[in-house]
């Protein structure tokens, strides 16, 4: 029995030893497979294998010589099992170490790939900007040569298409003019036309001659435009001007701008020739060819656009018997007045004697030959918008205000403007290639294009590539994000509707894009959406009471995982989001905390409590792996890649809290604030304001009578003096109450500002010191106007009265003359005045029966005219404070200003069915060539002065997104300023 047991034991031990040897051999073979990566680790494993083999051999020898013990057998088995277990654990540890090293190397490779992508993007952007500048210079040269060499303007077909637009369309064709080309093109190159023109320029400079030019065929231009469906939102969607470029006097040289009219002609000719495009006729002036007009040639081609029934069959040869118009009537040709109907109410307007024999309601007044171009946009929307400030590789920063997206070059102090939107821009996203931009807007006032939608456009050519989601959204688009792991092929948008819908778009597919999917995002507010930079199809949304991790599968389905806070404090809002270089998610919340969410999970791996006092509004990931956070407390904190605080910077309280932080050039930071300012600086130097603006409704604007300055005031209580040449704020002052009216004295030494409660104040224009305060009534001061001779000041109040003051030799001292009222007169049904001695009503003795809206002085400073909230037009003797009832004494007067929107000169600005409150402000230039009006729909319209015909044609321009509260020409008559209401912006236009 003993011998049999020993033999079984020996056999069993031999088999076990064989298994161990076999396993060791397999492990050795497996480790040799990784010999090139882990030589030292593999050597250690081989040594262990040899030890185990020797142990098993010695065990076999001992077991064959020892014939007595089962205990020895058990010991041998336990030692073998322990050795095997140790070997297994060692192998697992080695594999985990290898995996960790592999992951680290993958992360490093991802980082290097991203760095290379950034370098390539920077090179592409720089080259694209160079092409844009070359094309601009090229167009400028062509326009100058076409004006001199061709003996004036050619026809739109020949001179326009062949000349002015060649370079313009070359840029659009070669520099990402379509969504597909912009993403797939590996390089930018000159077209044959551009190279030929460049060679022509060089040859002409050298030899004084221009060689023959190769031009694009019209058929190719037509095909390209039809396929790409690109419309140029340059200057305005409702104007025919060139793209908006603004260059302020700065030491750095900047390229000359092309001649707007010539480029406009060529651009329109190309658009008209493209069957797929079709010109968007936005200016009724486009239908008339007038001598000298940049859009006409004097041929019958332009007039052929009129049909026999067009424009109500208005013509100079129509019958003069019973002249009527939908809203203007003159019953007999001998009548000395017409009736203008506004909101159904007839307003009697007397005709000047010079117009009595020639005035006809059926005449059409053409639009002016010149146009407006946006020169500069003042302001920034940081009060209620996030993620709206980016630095582009070309050196421009991109941000928005009102309906304008601004590309500002801080070094050259120049602006370019994208004007494709019809209402407030609410969101912005930059494509990973840093060339394309997506901007989303809220709903507008009229037409399909005013529905909430997203525009994808090229930041170099300002060409619109696609309009996304028009008619698909119900609220404004308040969050946008391009995908980053797949080179920006899809776009995520948050619809700020009651259901807070998240939608994913393939924005490159056909016109209008293709919606991949949509679903309800959250019942509460969503403040941001971001694609993960490394994981394809991973999206994160944050907002009130939530952070959500979304996965988009290949079938276009969205799956949602809510973030789990576990034992950490759950905030009311998750307010900011960013990513580490390894793909972890970093968020900030309304309690001032920072949280790190491990990549691929929905749980917090690290929590930094109370980093800020109050909400964290922005987290900016730096190139070196660090972060900068900004919050409501106005504090900027610099973190390293391990989230250790390294430095801090404070934003002065009068600039507002930090809304957004963006990385600029080098170590420079760009800071957008809640008081609509943009600051620039770093943690070693102080922060310098580069953009400033108003934060609440902007009511009033006035220009300086002698220099290039203007003053603004609004409900935010800020009185600000601006310089229109340097495009900067000279000074800003909080006067302690809302401002509804401002004026600068004729001498240019003081500013008067009207507030609430009947108070108006006088400030020194240089020191901004408060010099005096006056009170008239208890209502809001609506308007103020100095007489041309500078001796009188008229103050219009909401209490329906006009207060007249005498200006003294001391600039800030005014002597009250009286209050304008009517003494015993009332109007009959024809608008004529008669004695009213039996009237006992107090209201009939107060002149206007509604608030004073506008004031004008005659050129001789002897007569004042006024409009009221109920559209009355009254005339006054200011020295007597009595109303003038005899029309013969006032109807032939010439007026120094044109602020009154109801007058003979402004009959044509009132479209049919307009409400009387729709026109907010009008003005004329000093040479009385142009009349400009501003309305409630964000439009500025340019008329010829006077616009006295019911059918007066105009050019219309967009830029504001709210009711435009004021327009004023500068003293030079070349620049025009317009003030937005709710959009808080000031736009500076140039007559071109």
What does this structure look like?
This protein is of the alpha+beta class and 992 residues long. 21% of the residues lie in helices and 32% in strands. The chain has ten helices and 61 strands. A five-stranded antiparallel beta sheet has the order 1-15-14-13-12, with no helix packed on it. Helix 1 (2-32) runs antiparallel to helix 2 and helix 4 (156-164) packs across helix 9 (260-273). The N and C termini lie far apart (119 Å). The model is unreliable at 1-46, 59-69, 146-243, 247-322 and 824-845 (pLDDT under 50).
Primary descriptors:
alpha+beta; five-stranded antiparallel beta sheet; 10 helices; 32% strand; elongated; disordered N terminus
Radius of gyration: 37 Å
Strand content: 25-35%
Main β-sheet: number of strands, strand sense, barrel status? 5 strands, antiparallel
Please report the total strand number as a whole number: 61
Counting DSSP H or I runs of 4 or more residues, the number of helices is: 10
Mean pLDDT, to the nearest integer, reads 77
Strand order of the largest sheet: 1-15-14-13-12
Distance between the termini: 119 Å
Task: List low-confidence stretches.
Answer: 1-46, 59-69, 146-243, 247-322, 824-845
Overall shape: elongated
Instruction: Provide the helix percentage.
Output: 10-25%
Q: Structural class given helices, strands, pairing?
A: alpha+beta
């Amino acid at each position: 029995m003993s011998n049999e047991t020993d033999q079984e034991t020996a056999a069993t031990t031999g088999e076990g030893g064989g298994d161990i040897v076999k396993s060791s051999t397999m492990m050795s073979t497996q480790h040799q497979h990784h010999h090139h990566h882990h030589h030292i680790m593999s050597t250690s494993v081989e040594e262990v294998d040899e030890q185990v083999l020797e142990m098993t051999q010695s065990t076999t020898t001992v077991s064959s010589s020892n014939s007595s013990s089962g205990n020895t057998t058990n010991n041998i088995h336990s030692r073998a099992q322990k050795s095997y277990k140790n070997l297994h654990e060692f192998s697992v540890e080695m594999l985990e170490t290898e995996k960790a090293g592999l992951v680290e190397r993958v992360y490093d490779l991802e980082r290097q790939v991203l760095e290379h992508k950034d370098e390539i993007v920077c090179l592409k952007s720089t080259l694209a900007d160079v092409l844009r500048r070359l094309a601009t210079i090229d167009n400028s040269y062509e326009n100058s040569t076409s004006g001199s060499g061709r003996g004036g303007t050619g026809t739109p077909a020949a001179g326009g298409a062949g000349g002015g637009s060649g370079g313009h369309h070359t840029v659009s064709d070669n520099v990402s003019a379509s969504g597909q080309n912009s993403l797939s093109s590996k390089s930018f190159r000159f077209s044959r036309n551009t190279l030929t023109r460049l060679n022509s320029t060089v040859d002409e400079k050298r030899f004084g001659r221009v060689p023959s030019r190769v031009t694009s065929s019209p058929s190719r231009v037509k095909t390209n435009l039809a396929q790409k469906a690109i419309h140029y939102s340059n200057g305005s969607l409702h104007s025919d001007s060139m793209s908006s470029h603004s260059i302020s006097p700065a030491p750095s040289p900047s390229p000359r701008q092309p001649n707007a009219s010539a480029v406009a002609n060529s651009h329109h000719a190309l658009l008209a020739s493209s069957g797929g495009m079709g010109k968007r006729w936005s200016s009724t002036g486009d239908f008339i060819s007038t001598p000298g007009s940049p859009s006409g040639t004097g041929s019958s081609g332009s007039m052929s656009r009129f049909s026999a029934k067009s424009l109500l069959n208005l013509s100079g040869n129509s019958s003069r018997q019973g002249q009527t118009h939908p809203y203007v009537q003159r019953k007999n040709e001998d009548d000395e007045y017409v009736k203008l109907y506004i909101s159904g109410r007839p307003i009697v307007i007397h005709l000047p004697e010079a117009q009595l024999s020639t005035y006809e309601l059926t005449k059409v007044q053409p639009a002016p030959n010149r146009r407006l171009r946006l020169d500069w946009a003042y302001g920034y929307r940081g009060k209620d918008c996030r993620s709206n400030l980016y630095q582009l590789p070309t050196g421009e920063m991109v941000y928005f205000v009102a309906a304008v997206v601004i590309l500002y070059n801080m070094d050259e102090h120049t602006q370019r403007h994208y004007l494709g939107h019809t209402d407030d821009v609410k969101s912005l996203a930059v494509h990973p290639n840093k060339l394309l931009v997506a901007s989303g807007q809220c709903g507008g006032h009229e037409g399909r294009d005013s529905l909430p939608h997203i525009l994808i456009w090229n930041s170099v050519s300002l060409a619109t590539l696609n309009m996304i989601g028009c008619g698909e959204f119900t609220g404004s688009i308040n969050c946008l994000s391009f995908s980053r792991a797949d080179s920006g092929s899809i776009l995520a948008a948050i619809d700020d509707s009651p259901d807070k819908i998240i939608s994913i778009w393939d924005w490159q597919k056909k016109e209008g894009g293709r919606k991949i999917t949509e679903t309800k995002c959250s019942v509460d507010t969503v403040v941001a959406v971001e694609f993960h930079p490394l994981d394809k199809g991973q999206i994160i949304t944050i907002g009130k009471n939530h952070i959500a991790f979304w996965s988009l599968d290949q079938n276009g389905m969205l799956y949602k995982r809510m973030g789990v806070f576990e034992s950490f404090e759950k905030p009311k809002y998750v307010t900011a989001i960013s990513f580490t270089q390894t793909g972890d998610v970093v968020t900030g919340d309304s309690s001032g905390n920072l949280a790190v969410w491990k990549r691929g999970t929905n749980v917090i791996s690290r929590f930094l409590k109370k980093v800020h006092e109050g909400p964290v509004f922005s987290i900016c990931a730096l190139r070196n792996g660090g972060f900068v956070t900004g919050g409501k407390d106005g504090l900027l904190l610099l973190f390293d890649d391990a989230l250790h605080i390294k430095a801090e910077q404070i934003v002065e309280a009068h600039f507002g809290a930090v809304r957004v932080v963006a990385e600029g050039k080098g170590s420079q930071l760009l800071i957008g604030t809640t008081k609509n300012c943009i600051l620039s600086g770093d943690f070693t130097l102080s922060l310098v304001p580069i953009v400033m603006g108003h934060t609440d409704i902007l009511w009033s604007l006035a220009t300086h009578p002698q220099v290039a300055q203007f003053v603004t005031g609004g409900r935010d209580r800020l009185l600000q003096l601006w310089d229109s040449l340097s495009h900067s704020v000279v000074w800003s002052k909080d006067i302690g109450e809302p401002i509804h009216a401002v004026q600068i004295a004729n001498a240019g030494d003081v500013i008067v500002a009207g507030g609430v409660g009947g108070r108006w104040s006088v400030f020194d224009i240089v020191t901004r010191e408060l010099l005096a305060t006056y009170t008239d009534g208890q209502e809001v001061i609506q308007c103020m106007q100095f007489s041309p001779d500078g001796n009188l000041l008229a103050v219009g109040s909401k209490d329906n009265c006009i207060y007249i003051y005498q200006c003294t030799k001391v600039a800030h001292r005014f002597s009250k003359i009286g209050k304008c009222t009517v003494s015993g007169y009332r109007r009959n049904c024809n608008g004529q005045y008669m004695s009213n001695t039996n009237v006992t009503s107090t209201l009939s003795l107060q002149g206007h029966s509604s608030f004073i809206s506008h004031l004008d002085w005659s050129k001789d400073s002897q007569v004042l005219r006024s409009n009221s909230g109920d559209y009355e037009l009254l005339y006054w003797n200011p020295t007597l404070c009595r109303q003038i009832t005899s029309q013969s004494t006032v109807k032939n007067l010439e007026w120094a200003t044109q602020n009154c929107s109801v007058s003979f000169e402004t009959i044509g600005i009132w479209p049919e069915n307009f409400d009387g409150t729709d026109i907010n402000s009008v003005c004329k230039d000093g040479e009385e060539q142009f009349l400009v009006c501003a309305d409630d729909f964000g439009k500025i319209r340019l008329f010829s002065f006077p616009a006295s015909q019911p059918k007066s044609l105009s050019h219309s321009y967009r830029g504001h997104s709210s009711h435009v509260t004021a327009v004023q020409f500068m003293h030079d008559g070349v620049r025009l300023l317009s003030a937005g209401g709710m959009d808080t912006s000031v736009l500076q236009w140039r007559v071109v």
